[in-house]
Amino acid sequence: MIARTLTGRLRKAAMQFPVVTLTGPRQSGKTTLVRSVFKSHEYVSLESPDHLEFALQDPRGFLNQFSGPVILDEVQRTPSLFSYIQSIVDENDRSGQFILTGSQNFLLLERISQSLAGRSAVLHLLPFSLSELAGRSPLSLDTLGRSAPRREKPPRLDLLAMLLAGFYPRIHDKHLPPRDWLGPYYQTYLERDVRSVLKVGDLDAFSRFVRLCAGRNAGLLNLSGLASDCGITHTTARRWISVLEASFVITLLRPHHKSYGKRLIKSPKLYFLDTGLLCFLLQIRTREELLHHSSRGSVFESYVLSELIKNFAHRGEQPTINFWREATGREVDFMIDLGARIIPMEAKSAQTVAADFFKEIGAWRALSGKVDAPAALIYGGDQSFVRQGVAVCPWFVF
Fold it and tell me: Is 106's pLDDT higher than 60?
């Protein structure tokens, strides 16, 4: 089993809260992780029809059958359980009584906010990070942008092959061809999650919508344009975007709020969280196709953003990442807010660093007055160095 960065934080949360809730996309490794960490807990999967029927028809009786702590897997399928869990932990406030997992973030968080507020720690497990696959500690964001990072060995996969494969655990654990696994995974997502949550009647329209989103990856979200191209209403497009985001398929990156006297873009940018799924939706089949594909740069941006998000999430922290873009078109890909400072970061898939890669960071530094602010450039090459006051980092720095 590949060690997960979140393990320590998960154990600590179970010592502090009576309930720990672990969310994440389907097949991100939630069940494997909680069963390995909490070996003495009973385990029940609410995907099982027998357990599901029992929990729905007699929630009190279902919970009373457990004499000790328990893992309840895919608990979003039984919303009535949350109020009963609240009663149990209020009566007997023992740490780590319930470990809950689920793959539909918005359903879980809604129920937690209603019934388990203050009683549950909420953690997020995404697919493997690069550091997890490489068996090393993740990049320390506190040092990012200050100096050239120490040299790490490149991982077993080259960059393009890695982007094409993505990071879902089963692909790497079982050494599966990515498209052989991603096709059924995507179809299962459509048929199970989308149909059960949204009651979507026309799955073909939703599938077309998802592929349209893939074609707009790393671009500003234009709901009107998406709705028009897909033949649906603006309201439907907004609802479908919310489901994609809550299911950890995409993330919406919000703009940096400080204007520095300039008019800024207010729309969020859309990114897919897994590059393998993104390449599958874009119909990119080989690393050679990806090398010459017009979306290579946006796929690389998705990779960098997802690694940053995993860096926060797998330490139990909320990601604080934005982008900065003026109405004139000047843009910095990512603004990482560490509280005491903000680190601008650019992502470039090229293997050679060009002088104009630093132009946008320079523009932000000039406008903000932070001419010596730490900054970073992640690129597709394998060297580390400092240029124009920017720490240039290879793609495998994470």
Answer: no
Pairwise CA distance, residues 5 & 352, whole Å: 31
Structure tokens at 24: 């994440």
Strand order in the sheet with 376-379: 321-325, 331-337, 342-348, 376-379, 390-394, 385-387
What pLDDT is attached to residue 193?
Answer: 72
Q: How many Å apart are CA 312 and CA 307, to the nearest integer?
A: 9
Residue 120 in tokens: 């549950």
Q: How many C-beta neighbours within 10 Å does residue 93 have?
A: 11
Nearest partner of 305 among 266, 341, 278, 330, judged by Cα: 278
Report in angstroms the alpha-carbon separations of 200 from 79, 206, 251. 20, 8, 21
d(Cα 347, Cα 380) in Å, to the nearest integer?
9
- Distance of alpha carbon 359 from alpha carbon 349, whole angstroms: 16
pLDDT score of 189 more than 80: no
Give the residue among 377, 329, 379 at the shortest CA–CA distance from 351. Answer: 379
Please, how many CA atoms are within 13 Å of residue 132, restricted to the half-sphere of its CB?
A: 24
Domains of the chain in start order, with CATH, are 7-124 (3.40.50.300), 132-397 (no CATH)
Q: Is the pLDDT of residue 110 over 60?
A: yes
Average pLDDT over residues 192-196: 69
Q: How far apart are CA 302 and CA 245, in angstroms?
A: 14
Q: For residue 156, which phi and psi values (nearest 5 degrees)?
A: -60, -45
pLDDT at residue 262, rounded to an integer: 60
Pairing relationship of beta strands 70-73 and 42-45 according to DSSP bridges: parallel
Residue 272 has pLDDT above 70, yes or no: yes
d(CA 154, CA 274): 20
Mean pLDDT of 305-330: 92
Contact 249, 273 (CB under 8 A): yes
CA dihedral 267, 272, 275, 280 (to 10 degrees): -120
Highest mean pLDDT among 99-108, 170-179, 323-332: 170-179
Question: What pLDDT does residue 128 have?
Answer: 97
Are 281 and 250 in contact by the 8 Å Cβ rule? The answer is no
Query: What Å distances lie between residue 336 and 50, 68, 206, 309, 320, CA to CA?
Result: 46, 42, 33, 10, 6
